[in-house]
Every structure is written in structure tokens, then in C-alpha cells.
Design a protein that fits this description.
Elements: H1 18-45, H2 54-61, H3 67-102, H4 114-127, H5 134-156, H6 162-186, H7 194-198, H8 208-226, H9 228-234, H10 238-243, H11 248-270, H12 276-288, H13 297-322, H14 325-328, H15 333-351, H16 369-392, H17 400-407, H18 413-447, H19 459-471, H20 479-501, H21 508-532, H22 535-545, H23 554-573, H24 575-581, H25 586-590, H26 595-617, H27 623-635, H28 639-663, H29 672-694
Length: about 700
Amino acid sequence: MAVTAPTTTTAAAPAPPPTARSRTGAAAVAAGLALLVAVLAVADLTQGTADAGAGEVWKALTGQADPADSSVVIASRLPRMVAGLVVGAALAIAGTALQAVSRNVLASPDTLAVNAGSYAALGLAAATGVSMPLLASSGVAFAGGLAAAAVVLGLSGLGTGTVRLVLAGSALTLGLYAVTEGMLLLFPEETQGLYEWHQGSISQSGWDGVTQMLPLAVAGLAGLLLLSRRIDALALGDDAARGLGVPVRATRVTAVLLAVLLAAASVTLAGPIGFVGLCAPALVRSVARRFRTYGKTRAGIPLAALLGMALVLGSDVLLRAMVPSDTAVSVPTGVVTSLVGAVFLVVMAARLRDTAGAADTDKLRIRSHRTFVATTAVLVAALVAVTLIALLVGDTKLLLGDVANWLQGRAGPTTEVVLDTRVPRVLAALLAGAALALSGTIVQAVTRNPLAEPGVLGVSNGAALGAVLLVTTVSVPSSWGLSAAALGGAALTSVGVFGLAARGGFQQNRLVLVGMGFATASTALISLLIVLTDPFNATMALTWLSGSTYGRTLPDVVPLAIVLVVGLAIAVVRRRELDLVSLDEDTPRLLGLDLGRSRLWLLILSVVLAGTAVSAAGTIGFVGLVAPHAARALVGRQHTRVVPVAVLLGAVLVCTADLIGRSVIAPAQLGAGLMTAVIGTPYFLYLLVRSRSAR
């Protein structure tokens, strides 16, 4: 009889605990990123204008190459590659720290205006003619970046106001860039090369910059790693962190100081390279959802550093692979990272939950008819006065009799030449201001967003891109051609912005962030065109981008005059429609209004107005924001009154800015766009403070 052996069940090996799997996977992620960075570093070493491939690079690194090949690799390519590693790591770590201490996923050296503050400080130092060693320049950049970050964080608060932080940072950035660009135009010799440096390039002419900035980056990294446990405690809330014995204020201030130090070192070494500090921490958060190890600051910072290195080196490798080597030398790495960051910002905006972070605090004011008449009369008088002053004042002073003689065709040769050039400039400023104010009034009504305006939503930048593309490719563009190019750029941008924002009913967060993303992409492409074009065209484009009316002729303002007249007529006819769409979603439909169609046609009108204004007077910011706000404060919210008052305010504001820009420092001139940015930035920041206090 066969004896059957008892079956034995072999117990399965116990599964490793989840923490062990997490650590193993986290280590694999880090190793994979390190390998990617190594591959990109090798690829970056093989790219350049000289014919030195992988073999020559290896020989140079091992001391077997010819002196010429060795010099190219050791003195140029290797410092460039190391600079990419340092800059990428520094910006990524700075962004990680800023997001952690502010509890805001959009905090970064870009959105906190750290880069803009550093750029402005260095521009001011260059304009004064002071020659400083590299470490002293880093100190200046640190001071400027720290001051800008303090302003933005103070305005946006901590943990709330995601869009508020972006708006405050973007507004301050625009104002600081306006001041810096003014210095570039006023002191061209002292600030030579500063614009190209501002775009951000990791190219180096030796090891001096890397060796001096590397210790600062290492010090910032070490300091943040030592603070990592305290930073993690801040995520629990200030009260909980204090309960754990963490000095909240000291920790937050120290972390911000270290983050700004890292950003300043990066700016000093390679110029402002955008959005690495925004993208890398966001990618770390995505990885941390699967591997909890990286949710801790001590592990997240090294991972962010690897991601930052990969972003910067990958952008440089991609640029040199797509563009011929002799051209790639002139193209800044920051242009590529800004384009990547713009796409990233738009994607984040599409996924962001709206929190009504920028609610309108204007109450439903009822103003008397007498107030409206008195306000209009005062503004008309101001318009006449500023127009006359603008005609009489400039590098050549005139009298009213000279203007009267010119109108009658009896002026002398000198007076005729002066007024033939001055009158079109004054008309361009008046019409552009009126058109931008009307465009901003319509956009704010349709989107029910008090912070919406053509500049904030990227429409003006899109128009500028179209116009600069024509200016840098056509030797003598016509007035109608420039208007068509600007309208085309504005139309394409508006389709993208309003199309993506319309899904959520033009929610404030999504609309503003998408607009910021498109504005950033347009600005990066404009920088690329300016850097690559002929120096004469580049100067002309820079002057035009500053919002200058210089060189305008009467034919240049004809398209804008026609569009403005038509736009005003439509706005007056559809004034009740503007009142209804600015209320809510339900009321217009209950009264039989096709809200979708009405909104579409009004937005088209706004885009046409903004695009034509940009083609006639360049990029002029904040007018579409300031004029409608001031008009509502003066005469209430009825568009029967808001439209004429806003148009008058816009015309007076831009004409005054143009007058100041061309007369205060005559014969030198500053564009009206620079002046309106200087005026509009404080007002914009005031609106953010007021809306925060109201909530």
C-alpha cells in the first residue's frame, strides 16, 4: 500500500513593509535623476561652436588632448556645465524653501520678484558706474532680491492668496523692470550687455564666477538642511509649531534669507533664469505623493536640486541641439526655461481650485448726476490742459501763438518741424490711453474680475510679440501692417487665455494665472527675437516696448482713431449689456440675454482695442486697470458713466506719462510705458492690500 506523504504548504515570504518599499523606490528615483543629470552634463560638454566631440572632451579631461581642444573644454564648456548645475540646484532649493515657509505652491524667486529685485539693484549699480568685484555684486543682488521678497510676502500673506502672491510679485516685477529698462535707455554705455545678461545664460568665460558663487550656494544648502525639521513643523501651522518649541518667526525669516542668498548667487552667476524655482518643487510634490520620503524637507531639497540641475542643463542641451551652434551662443538659457515655466504655470492654473482670492471690494455705489457732470467737466478740463502742455513743452519750448500759427499754416520752419513731430506723439498717447482704458473696462465687466486688464491677462504681451516680430523682420513696416501684426498676436493670445479660462466661468484664479503664463511665454519669445536680431532693430524694438510714442506720424494713429471711435460707439450702445454681464451669471439669462454670445463679442472688442493701442504706442501697462477702478470710485458702477470717465482718465494718464518721459530729462527720453508702470505698480499693490483688508 502506497503511503501518501502529507502535503506541506510552504509559507509565502512576508512582504516588505510599505516604508521599506517606499525607501527603495525613493532611492531608485534619486539614482535615476542623478543618472539623467550625468547624461545631460556629458551631452552639454560635447556641444559648442568648436569642433570638439565626446572623444576630444574625454582627452581634454584626462590631459591627453591638444592645448587648443583642452582650453575649449576646460576653460569654457566645463565651467558652463558646472554653472548649470549650481544655478539649477540653487534656484530649485530656493523655490522649495520659499514654498514651504509661505505655504504657497506658487512661491518662487520669480513670483516673489527676487530675480527682478536683484536685476534692478545690479542695474542701478551699473548705471552709477561703480565697478565691483563679483562677490560685491552678489551682495547687491542679495539686498535687492531680499527687499522685493519682503514686499511681496508682506502683501500676499502666508498660506492664503495664491493668486494674490502671483499678482503682487508680477506687479512689482513689472515696476522694477520698468525702472531698470529706463536705466538701460538712459545709461546705454554703463549698462551695456545688461539686457542680454538679464535673459539668463549659463555660459562662462572661465572659472572665476563658479568658484566664487559655489561656496554661497553650499552655505545656503547647508543652512536649509539644518533648518529642515523646523520647516517641516511650520507645515502643521504656526500654533502647532510653537507647541513643538519651534521659533516660528525666526525660522521663517532665516529660511527666506537663505533662499534669497541662493537666488542672488544664481542671478550673479548666470542672470535671472526663470521658473526653475517654481517647476522643480512642484515636481517634487508629485513624486512625494507616491514616495512619502520626499514629503520631508531634508529629502525633498536634494531631490529638488537634482530636478533643477536637470531642468537647466536639459534646457541648455535642447537649445543647442535645435539651434545652430553659432546662433546658440547668443540665445540665453533663461528663454527656454521661461517657456517651459509658462506652460507649467498654465497647466497649474487649469488644475487650481478657485478661492476668489482677488474679490472686488468696490461696493455698489450710487452717485448723483451732478457728481458725474462735475467729474466729467473736471476731466475734460484736465485733458485740454495736459494736451496743451504736451504740445508746448519738450526739448523745444513753444507758445500758444506758435500752435495757432501752425494750425493756420503760418508757422516758421522750426515751429513747423517741432509740431509736425510732436502732434502725432500727443495724439498717439491720448488715443492709446483712451483705448486701453476702454479695453480694461470691458474686460473687467465681462470677467467680473477687478484685477483683469490687457497687460495682466497677457493680451498686451501677445500684441507686442506680433509687433516685434514684424519690426525685427521688416525694415520699414507700415502703420497698417504693424496694426495687423499686433492684432494677430493679441487675437492668438486672447483665444488661448479666454478659451482656457472660460471652462470655469472666467474664475479669477484661473483667468489671471493663465494670463500670466501667456504673458511670460510672449515675453520670452520677444527676448529671443531681440537677442537674435540686428542691433539696430533690437534698439528700435526695446524703445517701442517701453511704450514710446517716439517717431509716430499721423498715419500711424489713423487705425487706432478708427478703432477707438467704433469701440466707443459699441460700448455706449451696449452699456446696459455691460451692466448686466458684470452682475452675475443668472440675472442676464433671466432677462433674456445670450450671455455666451454677448461675452464673446465684448471680449473681441476689448482685444481689438488693446492690440491697436499697442501697435500705435507700444506696450503700456496698468492703464486698463487704473482707469476703470478710478472711474468706478468717482461715478459709481453704471457703465453709462464709467465708460466716458474711464476713457478720459486713460487719455490724461498716458498723455501725462508721455509728457513727463520726454520733457523731464530732455533731450533724453523715457517711454510712456515705463512711466505708467512706475505709477501703476503702487496703485496695483494698493488694490491688493485693500482687497485683503476687506476680506
